[in-house]
Design goal:
The structure is a single chain. This protein is mostly helical and 124 residues long. The chain has one domain. It is 81% helix and 0% strand. The protein has 4 helices and no strands. The longest helix has 39 residues.
């Protein structure tokens, strides 16, 4: 695998974590804004109609996060299954880590099993 492809996969492995941070920041800012509006306007403040535009950014971020995480997980699962450098027990551990830990494991696997894997020379 070329170095450029390894770097691109590394970027995609970190993106779910970055999108999760963006989602958390947007959620906190939404909640701060929402509760400040309740304090100003009182109990009659309607969440759905007044704050839907602020929620749209969170919804888009969450959809992107879900799709990207699913795509990266599928790629890493296929890579771990087909990786000739992994023993069968280590392969099983990585598959379980991907399924149960999720996006935290993507950059770890990328660094340990993609970035540090030596280049295989094609001698044909």
């Amino acid at each position: 695998m070329s170095k450029n492809k390894k770097i691109l996969i590394g970027i995609f492995s970190i993106l779910p974590l970055l999108l999760f941070v963006v989602y958390l920041v947007s959620m906190v800012s939404f909640l701060i804004h929402f509760f400040s509006q309740i304090a100003v306007r009182g109990k009659e403040y309607d969440l759905f109609y007044a704050e839907f535009s602020n929620m749209a950014g969170m919804i888009v971020t969450m959809v992107l996060l879900g799709l990207l995480s699913l795509g990266v997980m599928i790629y890493f699962l296929v890579h771990a299954i087909n990786n000739q450098f992994l023993k069968s027990d280590e392969r099983l551990v990585w598959i379980l880590v991907f399924i149960f830990v999720g996006m935290v494991s993507f950059p770890i696997y990328w660094y340990m099993r993609i970035w540090r894997t030596p280049e295989v020379l094609n001698t044909t």
